[in-house]
Each structure stands twice: as structure tokens, then as C-alpha cells.
């Protein structure tokens, strides 16, 4: 049976996900079969496994760090917020329904058997399981029904490392306050403290470290530096949305929807010389881009109304009228249509008009489409004609069924990878310079990105040098190694191994 160790934090965004990934990498490098685990993840960035099941991308990233295939057993509960007080609840990859925060709070202990089934599956297959907590274990209003922090640690009988974020300030109060609010049994489970995101001379902290160890009778097993590691992060707290990027020769803007999902679709566009990828949450951010992407969202209707109210919808319509490339993916594709209908109240209920840029109508249904697909671009016209015939691979995650109300040309022809018959079908559609598709990952292939950038440059009369793209898979492997090397330097790995074994 596997050994385990759990990473908990004093609050959200202290670095739990990256520390979990780093430890997964270290243990794998040291010859242990290692898997990540997070009993309950709240995120809008999700992933479809080879079996057609849905899980959080943070655990996919951690599985990559461990050198293994991602599995829904690594994230048995995924909560995808639909509004400020409710979420879609996904258990072991399958949607079981939408619940308000109060409904889920009262219901979640019924999911313990599902959580433990997933954990036991990993326990039988791996040597070490690195468990990630969520938020803080000291949220006293949530502790009675906890299944993700100390509740999970108890069920797995896992020792805990407690992490505080010094970059935000008050790290000593974070760690002491959290420990003081834990029950005696919970405090005894905490075997080590980590101060994360430190900048500067570590010796300045020595007096504080000694105080922590004396007051809490718990060793500080590492002071880890602020790391510029380029890995996928939790969607709601991503720095990608707030970084101010200079406008380059080719400027691509993603609309920063309040409930944006799967923005990892665009990561490959971030590191191309002469290209800027920016996120715009208001008219002032938009400026005059060469391409506007309307991304996926967990609430198409509400986010479209948000765009309508703040003027971004009008700006997209004006850009389309001027011939700018507008590309909608998933929920963004639905928004570009003529109408969105929700007769069953899946999102907001009722019917609203779309942007009217594509002749399609979307009707929300209870059954969720979750599938990995392979396909190729159809015969394209206009700006993206050079993409004709290019092959891609990706996945679909959506509740709506989108149908044409007037003829239009499909963007692609796809088939379900898991479908043994491999039936091809048209997908998405375009009218002149406006394109829409349900396929996440449609830009992931190097040839597609090169031709996309070349087309945008030609439209502006520019002659950019040959687009050079990094080997993205190799780049991520390098980032995992940098993360592991850094943690080996600043964590007491011998002590961590003694805690585990």
C-alpha cells in the first residue's frame, strides 16, 4: 500500500499546487511510482481523460510532473462554479448536477465513499501519493464537514506539511494562527512547516524561524524562494490575467470573462516573438487587436450579458465589421450565434439573443458532452484559408447543442477518438472573418499556430521572420525539472522522507 504526504496551506494561492507538483517530480526522479491526489478541486480549467471523463487540470499538471497519465481517481470531486453561490458538481468524472453552496455543504459527506474509492485505487498502484489540500484547514465554519483538508488527512492517515506565503506578508501570523485554530489531534498531524515565496537573504528570517519552531514544537523544513516557474496554475488566481503585456506587431486579445474556463487553450501563443497575447476585461484593455478570442465559460448567458453591459460586445461587433479575426471557442462560440436558449434552467433559464455573428442557435441540455476528438480543418476561405486540411487533436466539454439556422461552412471535420467506428462529422462554422468551434486545443499544433500568425501578419502587410515555436512538451518537462531542483535545494528532503516512511 502507498505511503502518503499532504500539502496544506494557510490560505489559497500559497503555492500548494506547485509544491505538490515539485514533490511528485522529486519522488518520481528518485524511483518511486508517485501520484497526485486532491479530493475536491474548485476550478473552471478542466480536462477530458482518454476515457471521456472530466477532472481538474491542476492534477493533470501534477501527473505530468510525476511522469504518469492523468486519471479521474486523482481528483474525484470537481466543482465548476456556475455563479457566485453555486457550482456544477462532477464526481469521478461524471456530472451529478448543480448545487448551491449550502446544498453542497450539506451533501458532500455523502461523497466520502467516492473519495475513498478513488484514493484506494491509487493506493494499490503507487508507492507515494502526494495529497493537496484546498484553501485553509482552519476555516472553522467548514471544519465539521471537511473532506479536503484535515478530514482527508485523517481518512488517508497522512502526515501534513503546512505552507505559508511570505510574499503576501504576515507569514508568521498565518502559520501560528492556523495551528492555534486546529484541534490537538490535527496539530499533531502537522509534521513540518514551509515558508514559501521568499525573496532575499534567508538569514534575515532566522529569528522568526526559531520562534515558530519553539512556539509550535514543529520543525520548519524549508524556506522556498519565489519561483518564476511557467506551469499551469489555478484559474481563478492566475497571474496571466493581471500581467500587463506590451502590444507587439501581432496582437491577440482574449476576452477575460468573469467565469472564463480552459484558458490553457492559448498558452502556446504566449511565447512567440513578435506576438502579444493579452487578456481584456474592459474596453480600455481591448485597444485595437488583430484577433479577438471569445473563450470558454461556465456560464455563457451571464458572461454574455456582462459583455453587453460593459461595452465589450459592441467592441467585438465593431471589430468584426472592420474585418478583424474573431474566434469563439466553446461558450464563446455559443455567444457568437443568434440565440441561446435555456429551457431547463441549466444556467440562467429563458432565452437571450447572441451577438448574431454566426447563423447558429444553442439550446442547453442536461446531458454534458465530454469527448476527445481528432479532426482537420475543412476548406477555409478568407483570412484562414491556409489552415485548410491541417489536422488537430483536442476535446469538447459543453452542455449545449448548437445547430445552424442558416447554411454556413463548417470549421472542421472531427470524430470521437473513443468511437470505434470513427464517424466523421462537421464541427463549428465560419462566416467571412468570424469563426466558432467547440474544440479545446484547436491551436495546439505547431503548424496551425505558424499559419495563424502568418495569416495575421499578411493581413497587416507585415513580413515576420519564420515563427519559431518551442517544443511545448519539452519546455514543460524542463520547468518540472527546474521546480524539483529548486525544492531539493531549499527543502530538507531527508526529513520529508523520514516523515513519509
Automatic annotation (TrEMBL):
<keyword id="KW-0315">Glutamine amidotransferase</keyword>
<dbReference type="InterPro" id="IPR029062">
    <property type="entry name" value="Class_I_gatase-like"/>
</dbReference>
<dbReference type="InterPro" id="IPR027417">
    <property type="entry name" value="P-loop_NTPase"/>
</dbReference>
<comment type="pathway">
    <text>Cofactor biosynthesis; adenosylcobalamin biosynthesis.</text>
</comment>
<keyword id="KW-0169">Cobalamin biosynthesis</keyword>
<feature type="domain" description="CobQ/CobB/MinD/ParA nucleotide binding">
    <location>
        <begin position="5"/>
        <end position="226"/>
    </location>
</feature>
<dbReference type="InterPro" id="IPR011698">
    <property type="entry name" value="GATase_3"/>
</dbReference>
<dbReference type="GO" id="GO:0015420">
    <property type="term" value="F:ABC-type vitamin B12 transporter activity"/>
</dbReference>
<protein>
    <recommendedName>
        <fullName>Cobyric acid synthase</fullName>
    </recommendedName>
</protein>
<comment type="function">
    <text>Catalyzes amidations at positions B, D, E, and G on adenosylcobyrinic A,C-diamide. NH(2) groups are provided by glutamine, and one molecule of ATP is hydrogenolyzed for each amidation.</text>
</comment>
<dbReference type="GO" id="GO:0009236">
    <property type="term" value="P:cobalamin biosynthetic process"/>
</dbReference>
<dbReference type="InterPro" id="IPR002586">
    <property type="entry name" value="CobQ/CobB/MinD/ParA_Nub-bd_dom"/>
</dbReference>
<dbReference type="GO" id="GO:0003824">
    <property type="term" value="F:catalytic activity"/>
</dbReference>
<dbReference type="Pfam" id="PF01656">
    <property type="entry name" value="CbiA"/>
</dbReference>
<dbReference type="InterPro" id="IPR047045">
    <property type="entry name" value="CobQ_N"/>
</dbReference>
<feature type="domain" description="CobB/CobQ-like glutamine amidotransferase">
    <location>
        <begin position="251"/>
        <end position="446"/>
    </location>
</feature>
<comment type="similarity">
    <text>Belongs to the CobB/CobQ family. CobQ subfamily.</text>
</comment>
<dbReference type="InterPro" id="IPR004459">
    <property type="entry name" value="CobQ_synth"/>
</dbReference>
<dbReference type="InterPro" id="IPR033949">
    <property type="entry name" value="CobQ_GATase1"/>
</dbReference>
<feature type="active site">
    <location>
        <position position="440"/>
    </location>
</feature>
<dbReference type="Pfam" id="PF07685">
    <property type="entry name" value="GATase_3"/>
</dbReference>
<feature type="active site" description="Nucleophile">
    <location>
        <position position="330"/>
    </location>
</feature>
Amino acid at each position: 500500500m502507498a505511503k502518503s504526504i499532504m500539502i496544506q496551506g494557510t490560505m489559497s494561492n500559497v503555492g500548494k499546487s506547485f509544491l505538490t507538483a515539485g514533490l511528485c517530480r522529486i519522488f518520481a526522479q528518485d524511483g518511486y511510482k508517485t501520484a497526485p491526489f486532491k479530493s475536491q478541486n474548485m476550478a473552471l480549467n478542466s480536462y477530458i481523460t482518454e476515457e471521456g471523463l472530466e477532472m481538474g487540470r491542476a492534477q493533470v499538471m501534477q501527473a505530468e510532473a510525476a511522469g504518469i497519465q492523468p486519471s479521474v481517481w486523482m481528483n474525484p470531486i470537481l466543482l465548476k462554479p456556475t455563479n457566485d453561490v453555486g457550482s456544477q458538481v462532477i464526481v469521478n468524472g461524471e456530472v451529478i448536477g448543480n448545487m448551491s453552496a449550502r446544498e453542497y455543504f450539506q451533501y458532500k459527506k455523502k461523497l466520502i465513499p467516492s473519495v475513498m474509492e478513488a484514493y484506494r485505487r491509487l493506493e494499490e498502484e503507487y508507492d507515494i501519493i502526494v495529497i493537496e489540500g484546498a484553501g485553509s484547514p482552519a476555516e472553522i465554519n467548514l471544519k465539521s464537514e471537511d473532506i479536503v483538508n484535515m478530514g482527508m488527512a485523517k481518512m488517508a492517515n497522512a502526515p501534513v506539511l503546512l505552507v505559508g506565503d511570505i510574499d503576501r506578508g504576515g507569514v508568521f501570523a498565518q502559520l501560528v494562527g492556523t495551528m492555534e485554530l486546529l484541534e490537538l489531534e490535527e496539530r499533531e498531524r502537522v509534521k513540518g512547516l514551509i515558508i514559501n515565496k521568499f525573496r532575499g537573504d534567508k538569514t534575515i528570517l532566522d529569528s522568526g524561524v526559531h520562534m515558530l519552531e519553539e512556539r509550535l514544537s514543529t520543525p520548519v523544513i524549508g524556506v522556498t524562494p519565489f519561483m518564476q516557474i511557467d506551469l499551469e496554475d489555478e484559474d481563478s488566481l492566475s497571474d496571466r490575467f493581471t500581467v500587463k503585456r506590451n502590444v507587439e506587431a501581432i496582437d491577440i486579445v482574449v476576452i477575460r470573462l468573469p467565469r472564463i474556463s480552459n484558458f490553457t487553450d492559448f498558452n502556446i501563443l504566449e511565447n512567440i516573438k513578435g506576438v502579444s497575447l493579452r487578456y481584456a476585461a474592459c474596453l480600455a484593455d481591448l485597444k485595437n487587436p488583430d484577433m479577438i478570442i471569445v473563450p470558454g465559460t461556465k456560464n455563457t448567458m451571464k458572461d454574455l450579458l456582462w459583455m453587453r453591459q460593459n461595452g465589450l460586445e459592441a467592441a467585438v461587433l465593431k471589430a468584426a465589421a472592420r474585418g478583424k479575426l474573431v474566434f469563439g471557442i466553446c461558450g464563446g462560440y455559443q455567444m457568437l450565434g443568434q440565440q441561446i436558449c435555456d429551457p431547463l434552467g441549466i444556467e440562467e433559464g429563458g432565452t437571450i439573443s447572441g451577438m448574431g455573428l454566426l447563423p447558429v442557435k444553442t439550446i442547453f441540455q442536461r446531458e454534458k458532452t465530454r469527448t476527445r476528438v481528432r479532426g482537420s480543418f475543412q476548406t477555409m476561405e478568407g483570412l484562414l484559408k491556409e489552415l485548410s486540411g491541417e489536422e488537430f487533436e483536442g476535446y469538447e466539454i459543453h452542455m449545449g447543442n448548437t445547430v445552424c439556422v442558416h447554411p454556413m461552412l463548417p470549421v472542421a471535420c472531427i470524430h470521437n477518438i473513443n468511437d470505434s467506428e470513427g464517424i466523421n462529422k462537421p464541427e463549428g462554422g465560419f462566416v467571412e472573418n468570424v469563426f466558432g468551434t467547440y474544440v479545446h486545443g484547436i491551436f495546439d499544433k505547431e503548424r496551425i499556430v505558424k499559419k495563424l500568425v502568418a495569416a495575421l501578419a499578411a493581413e497587416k502587410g507585415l513580413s515576420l521572420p519564420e515563427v519559431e515555436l518551442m517544443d511545448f512538451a519539452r519546455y514543460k518537462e524542463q520547468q518540472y525539472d527546474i521546480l524539483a531542483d529548486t525544492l531539493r535545494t531549499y527543502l530538507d528532503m531527508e526529513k520529508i522522507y523520514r516523515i513519509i516512511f
